[in-house]
Amino acid sequence: MSGMEQINVCGLSNPEPLLRVQEILKKDFSQLRIICDCGMAVESIERFLQQKNCHFHKGRNPDTSFTLWINFEEQGAEWKKI
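Request: output the structure for the sequence above.
Response:
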């Protein structure tokens, strides 16, 4: 396991964040945190993860009204809060 990976997603102006998620999913890791500031990006990434049958948890940053986190765990892995 390579431990924690983090991706920052700022809108959907380019496909790089989703491509990075796809690339990371090919690796062995214990946890991935995706920090999104765009609801459309969150929905796009959620759909992709659901298609891959991945388990993930989503939360809102208490300090802002807009930033969203998706805390993602590999299927079958034990969930640990970040």
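The helical segments are 16-25, 39-51.
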